Amino acid sequence: MEKEIEQLPQKAREKHAENKKFFAKLKKRPPKNLDYVMQELHQDEFERTDCLQCANCCKTTGPLFTNTDIERIAKFFRLKPSQFIAQYLRLDEENDYILQEVPCAFLGADNYCSIYDVRPKACREFPHTDRKKFQQISNLTLKNVAICPAAFHIVEEMKRRLKL
Ligand code: SF4
Ligand code: SF4
Q: Could you give the CA distance from residue 20 to residue 42 in angstroms, rounded to a whole number?
């Protein structure tokens, strides 16, 4: 897995033009069964993928924290939301709360998340490959294939399966 993660940005760069073209077509004419196909591809891929061998999302990007996330996680640490923000978060250019630094402070050396049960919604949903109307997040997916080996494989399989 380590070698694959190392090679992923280069592989994603090589596929970028092809993926961009594919997603442009997908957006224009999404197949009727797209939600169903994505559920299936996502499920199959994550049956093969062990995120504990990877954790590249937690090491390199980190999530956005919504107000609900902040309240829930602050409560878990018995902190006030403002104290939690001061300790762990900062605002990005779009005024969203993100981690002060990556790798995420909550990621253990064994790749376990120390706040797993209360982790941000964005962590629970990453890489978003099972979400409905997948064609609407193509720009995000174009970036995620360089971070997440599972997302990379899912997009490759989509291109094989969906003849647009
Ligand atoms: S979601 Fe993707 S990047 Fe994150 S740990 Fe799993 S395979 Fe790796
Ligand atoms: S909160 Fe947990 S799941 Fe989310 S980035 Fe940090 S370690 Fe990963």
A: 20
C-alpha gyration radius of the chain: 17
The helix or strand, by DSSP H or E, that contains position 91, with its residue range, turns out to be strand 89-91
Of 48, 69, 70, nearest in space to 4 by CA: 48
Residue among 54, 113, 129 whose CB has most ligand 1 atoms within 8 A, to mutate: 54
Pocket test for ligand 2, best of 59, 123, 128, 148 (most atoms within 8 A of CB): 123
Whole-Å CA distances, 145 to 2, 102, 108, 136: 15, 18, 24, 16
- Whole-prediction pTM: 0.95
- Residue 57 CA to residue 146 CA, distance in Å, equals 10
Within 10 Å of residue 112's Cβ, how many Cβ atoms? 12
- 107: Cβ below 6 Å to ligand 2? yes
The whole-number pLDDT of residue 80 equals 98
Cβ 58 under 6 angstroms from ligand 2: yes
- Banded model confidence at residue 140, pLDDT cuts 50, 70, 90: very high
